[in-house]
């Protein structure tokens, strides 16, 4: 937990200490960063230094490419990104956009590390191109923007892999370049997303992670209300970060504000804009489940499962694992034990195919134990709870397994 707080704090540093930064900055918690995803035709002034992001060619192909990306049409997205790279072979925008294809592949199943090396290499290409531009002009706007963004994505990847030193080092490397960007960026639309994120998270982190105070004391104070206003501004008027701003508004209301109605409204906007995106689809189900609206959650996860079984793009085995787990939990608490066991058996098969899927495997065994207790099959229940205790803990599963070993789950 302490290490995670450090990683979040370093992500905040990437946002420029409350400065107004440009699109491409990483988010401060686990979201799928879509930092250059064009979502709006809103006219936002260009920075004082010309940016390639305001050229019609990049806007056109960036918009088309990233809309394909959100729809899990990776090959079509790559075709547009390749055209940008061919037009600007010395600029970091091409490899950065191409790297987002890999990033989304990673985000669809964080337990899969097979794409890590390729993604790291792609971000290094971005950094190399930025360095070449900075050698010619130390104040080059796009070079500063994309170098900060590349180091931010690397920090995010290393954070997901619990490589905290590399997370911090990449965060530190981004800071100077963020300062270059903040000096000339406009104060609306895309460019207030970073400052909104900073304001919000610096304001709420001390209450969420008390040990984060050891890091945050050196940074300017945040302002939660101002942060939310800026995020809403980016969600309304951003061209490149509208989707990311909408996602974070859904996320913060879900995680920190306990306002599930607002979270639902924001996620519905995501689903309307990107109906084929499995990440947003699953998130919608999670919101309703946490809100206690299991009827709606049930139908959403049933739809996720149906798409996964049909092989819809992006609806991979991991998405099926999530859907099976929630559907099993729903059946368990509705006393539909046979149906719960059927989902849990499928979940067990899925997680056995992935050695890294510890969280879903351990929760699956926990729920199996609870079902067997409810069915009066104590020997099988004890077997499953002991399996849970032999595995890495996840979501408090060890405490619950210990409790049910002492006193059987009664349904």
User: Tell me about the biggest sheet?
Assistant: none
Q: Topology as H/E string?
A: HHHHHHHHHHHHHHHHHHH
Silhouette = elongated
Structural class: mainly alpha
How many structural domains does the protein architecture include?
Answer: 2
Q: What is the alpha-carbon Rg in Å?
A: 22 Å
Number of strands: 0
Please outline what is shown here.
The protein has helices spanning 2-14, 56-70, 74-87, 93-107, 116-136, 141-160, 164-182, 193-208, 213-216, 224-237, 242-255, 260-273, 278-291, 294-310, 317-333, 337-352, 358-374, 378-390, 397-406.
Description of the structure:
The protein is an all-alpha fold and 411 residues long. The protein has helices at residues 2-14, 56-70, 74-87, 93-107, 116-136, 141-160, 164-182, 193-208, 213-216, 224-237, 242-255, 260-273, 278-291, 294-310, 317-333, 337-352, 358-374, 378-390, 397-406. It is 69% helix and 0% strand. Helix 6 packs antiparallel against helix 7. The chain is elongated and about 75 Å long.
Topology of this structure?
Blueprint: H1 2-14, H2 56-70, H3 74-87, H4 93-107, H5 116-136, H6 141-160, H7 164-182, H8 193-208, H9 213-216, H10 224-237, H11 242-255, H12 260-273, H13 278-291, H14 294-310, H15 317-333, H16 337-352, H17 358-374, H18 378-390, H19 397-406
Helix pairs in contact: 1-6, 1-7, 1-8, 2-3, 3-4, 4-5, 5-6, 6-7, 8-10, 10-11, 11-12, 12-13, 13-14, 13-15, 14-15, 15-16, 15-17, 16-17, 17-18, 17-19, 18-19
């Amino acid at each position: 937990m302490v290490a995670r707080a450090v990683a979040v704090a370093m992500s905040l540093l990437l946002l420029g200490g409350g400065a107004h930064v440009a699109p491409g900055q990483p988010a401060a918690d686990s979201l799928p960063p879509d930092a250059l995803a064009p979502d709006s035709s809103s006219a936002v002034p260009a920075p004082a230094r010309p940016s390639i992001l305001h050229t019609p060619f990049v806007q056109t192909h960036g918009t088309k490419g990233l809309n394909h990306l959100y729809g899990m049409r990776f090959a079509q997205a790559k075709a547009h990104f390749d055209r940008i790279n061919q037009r600007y072979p010395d600029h970091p925008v091409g490899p950065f956009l191409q790297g987002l294809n890999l990033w989304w592949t990673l985000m669809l199943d964080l337990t899969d590390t097979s794409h890590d090396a390729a993604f790291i290499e792609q971000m290094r290409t971005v950094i190399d191109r930025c360095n070449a531009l900075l050698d010619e002009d130390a104040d080059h706007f796009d070079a500063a923007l994309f170098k900060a963004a590349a180091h931010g994505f690397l920090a995010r990847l290393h954070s997901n892999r619990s490589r905290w030193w590399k997370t911090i080092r990449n965060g530190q490397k981004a800071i100077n370049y963020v300062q270059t960007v903040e000096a000339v960026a406009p104060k609306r639309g895309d460019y207030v997303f970073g400052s909104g994120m900073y304001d919000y998270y610096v304001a709420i982190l001390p209450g969420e992670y008390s040990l984060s105070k050891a890091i945050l004391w050196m940074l300017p104070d945040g302002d939660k209300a101002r942060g939310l206003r800026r995020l809403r501004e980016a969600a309304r008027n951003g061209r490149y970060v509208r989707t990311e701003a909408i996602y974070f508004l859904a996320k913060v209301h879900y995680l920190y504000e306990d306002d599930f109605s607002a979270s639902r409204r924001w996620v519905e906007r995501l689903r309307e804009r990107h109906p084929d995106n499995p990440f947003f689809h699953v998130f919608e189900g999670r919101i309703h489940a946490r809100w206690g609206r299991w009827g709606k959650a049930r139908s959403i996860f049933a739809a996720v499962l149906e798409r996964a079984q049909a092989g819809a793009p992006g609806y991979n085995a991991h998405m099926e694992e999530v859907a099976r787990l929630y559907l099993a939990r729903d059946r368990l608490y509705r006393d539909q034990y046979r149906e719960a066991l059927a989902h849990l058996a499928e979940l067990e098969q899925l997680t056995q195919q992935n050695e890294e899927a510890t969280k879903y495997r351990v929760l699956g065994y926990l729920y199996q134990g609870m079902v067997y207790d409810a069915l009066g099959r104590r020997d099988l229940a004890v077997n499953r709870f002991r399996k849970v205790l032999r595995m890495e803990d996840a979501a408090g599963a060890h405490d619950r397994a210990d409790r049910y070993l002492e006193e059987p789950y009664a349904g």
